[in-house]
């Protein structure tokens, strides 16, 4: 069975470490990027089963990076979990066309629950 791959766009190394611990505990191989300007190239290289996108990721930001993915014929079916400390995270995730969102700060259980939900195709 092929190991699932998660691609995480997060510029805070401490938060990135949390994602890595949770995702690896769920059986994922984790690739990450601290910028979003090359989002399509990173997805092409990683071929992820899941993308976690931070709102404030440098260069083009999470909304635009997610929109690029969702407009792409090949990548638009990859589930994207949109994460932000912004109080408007729900509307930002809708604008981005993400599959689900998670507000920071979050608990590890909330993170794992949203990952499972987005992989199953439910949005919360």
From TrEMBL:
Residues 5-119 form the Response regulatory domain. It holds the Pfam family Response_reg. Transmembrane segments: none annotated. The modification 4-aspartylphosphate is found at residue 54. Keywords: Phosphoprotein. InterPro entries: Bact_response_regulator, CheY-like_superfamily, Sig_transdc_resp-reg_receiver. Coiled coil: none annotated. This is Response regulator. It comes from Sphingobacterium tenebrionis.
């Amino acid at each position: 069975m092929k190991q699932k791959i998660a691609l995480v766009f997060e510029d805070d190394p401490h938060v990135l470490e949390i994602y890595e611990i949770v995702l690896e505990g769920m059986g994922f191989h984790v690739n990450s990027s601290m910028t979003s300007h090359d989002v399509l190239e990173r997805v092409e290289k990683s071929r992820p089963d899941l993308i976690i996108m931070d709102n404030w990721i440098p260069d083009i930001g999470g909304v635009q990076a997610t929109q690029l993915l969702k407009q792409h014929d090949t990548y638009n079916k990859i589930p994207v979990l949109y994460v932000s400390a912004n109080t408007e995270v729900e509307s930002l995730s809708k604008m981005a066309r993400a599959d689900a969102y998670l507000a920071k700060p979050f608990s590890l259980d909330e993170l794992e629950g949203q990952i499972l939900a987005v992989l199953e195709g439910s949005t919360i």
